[in-house]
# Entry
Amino acid sequence: MRLISYDNAGRPAIGVVRAAGDAEFVDLGATGLALPTDMAALLATTDALATVKRAAQSAPAHAVKPLAGVRFLPVVPRPPKILCLGLNYADHAKEGGHAKPEYPSFFMRGATSQVGHREAIVRPKASSKLDYEAELAVVIGARARHLTKANALSCVAGYSCYNDGSLRDYQRKTNQWTIGKNFDATGGFGPWLVTPDELPAGGAGLSIQSRLNGRVMQDANTKDFLFDVVESLCIITECITLEPGDVIITGTPAGVGYARTPPVWMAPGDVCEIDIEGVGVLSNTIVDEA
# Structure
């Protein structure tokens, strides 16, 4: 099952994408069920995904709408937390001059740094060094603390694509990366949430690419994680309680723009795509800040 967050006359709404050709979706608000219209709130509802699946399967004809022309929101428009792992592929750590880490490098993103599928990523006035990062996003569906390898995946609601757009000069102004990762509208998140039953456990063994104007920039596989989804969830919940709607961004492989000679930055008019096997293709154009 694939769930989208989208704009419905200025208000957030949730839909279920139909499998046949990805041309249609079920507008959950038109099914007659009193379901939350915010993804985080929906995931916090008891038996949410089972309820949504039943509603989509029995949806009346008027609730089925074309996907073309929909304005996508970030899959979770306002996550309680966006926790990001840095240096989670050995080749990316190496290209940045870092040793293979013994513990993940964590940072956080804010909700205002996100945009949805087919929305514009904004290159800010402050810098032109806007880089792409293809990443697998893990969306949390249940409150969790002190997870173990045996139960870690029980809290996962699904997976999505993320473009962890980074202003490299600002990222390196301090020892902490947060400021370079949180410019408004620099992080693409979408196109949809794919439930775990459609993917290998923990999103393992999935090919992951970034493409800039059709050119493959990163080409890797999630089997190359230094800290896989299970281990990452165990490490995080040793410290932090995860809540429905939280998002874990799992790190990017080698091939980013700053490590190239000469560097490659995303510029206005570019189209950046993040393609993850079994999940989908997240596409964003690049524009200058107004």
Remarks:
- The helical segments are 39-43, 48-57, 90-95, 168-171, 229-237.
- The first helix runs from residue 39 to 43.
- Residues 2-66 form one domain.
